[in-house]
Amino acid sequence: xxxxxxxxxxxxxxxxxxxxxxxxxxxxxxxxxxxxxxxxxxxxxxxxxxxxxxxxxxxxxxxxxxxxxxxxxxxxxxxxxxxxxxxxxxxxxxxxxxxxxxxxxxxxxxxxxxxxxxxxxxxxxxxxxxxxxxxxxxxxxxxxxxxxxxxxxxxxxxxxxxxxxxxxxxxxxxxxxxxxxxxxxxxxxxxxxxxxxxxxxxxxxxxxxxxxxxxxxxxxxxxxxxxxxxxxxxxxxxxxxxxxxxxxxxxxxxxxxxxxxxxxxxxxxxxxxxxxxxxxxxxxxxxxxxxxxxxxxxxxxxxxxxxxxxxxxxxxxxxxxxxxxxxxxxxxxxxxxxxxxxxxxxxxxxxxxxxxxxxxxxxxxxxxxxxxxxxxxxxxxxxxxxxxxxxxxxxxxxxxxxxxxxxxxxxxxx
Length: 414
Prior knowledge:
- With 414 residues, the protein is an alpha+beta fold.
- It folds into four domains: 1-87; 89-182, Beta-Lactamase (2-Layer Sandwich); 186-261, Orthogonal Bundle (Helix Hairpins), CATH 1.10.287; 262-414, Heat Shock Protein 90.
- It is built from 14 helices and twelve strands.
- The strands form three sheets. Strands 2-1-5-4-3 form a five-stranded antiparallel sheet, sandwiched between helices. It has a five-stranded mixed sheet with strand order 7-9-10-12-11. The protein has a two-stranded antiparallel sheet with strand order 6-8.
- β3 (144-152) and β4 (156-166) form a beta hairpin.
- The protein is elongated, with a radius of gyration of 32 Å.
- It starts with a helix and ends with a strand.
């Protein structure tokens, strides 16, 4: 043998250890580094295997009774298990661009309907020019990394492709090995982060601009006019309160999404809780000519965190008050089934169907101008959604134009 079985066993063991670490480490940069080491070890093993295969073929031709040793069989099985457990897709092609080795992740990526990828030409698996050119360059001896590859199937996926040449005895590489790092989640999170920062900047800019404008007006002599100065100060206070509320909601939502909120669940008297929420919002409802109705029967118990459930109900009832119809009503009731259902219903104008799917997204508004005028931050329903999920439940919405909207909190029974 050109390389000892012991040496190959060490390489395979290194692949196993590095793969396990890559599977359990959460940091993308560390995972990419570990996967690169696995790739390097795999490239060495594949090269050795190709060379040894030729050597063994020649040997077996001379001695047809020569059998493969049990140790080498064990090493091969371990190597296959290591490659199969990788999250990253691994593809090896020969100098004719024909697949000679692949793992299950690559199989799922290219064509799950095929029994196997081996012996398939790369052009038969994909028409993506970025993939083909990366492997072609590797066959010319040029290592390629950082190649972004996108798939356009039912679910869009994004991969970071790295391809290295394999083997070569002075006549150029005998093949190429590529590893596809799935960065779909990272890309999605980056888009969410960018959108979040854009929305926060926009939401803060509006009240901040108003505050600066009225402060400058006061500085330029409006302080002498008592009536105007009081009106300007009132507007400044309103916009400062809006910024304060927005920052509070951002911090609250960040804590919930980050898993930094711990629930203290217990049996909660729903009738009393709804009565307390209605009492705290009574003045605001009266100012908008809205009637709050508590239809929850006394003695109804639900299993939840009392403070967080109060927060959810406050957001939903307050939402009903803001988008009310003159002389409207916001009603809270309870229904029992496999889960406890708490319904918050208003008889407002309703929500167009095309908005319902995105209603619980951060900063999403059906009517942006109206929501801002009423002091909404665009985060209330997102907070309700995440608090419901934290309870092991969910929140849903049904609405009909001209008739009103029903938000339903679904809570698991104890």
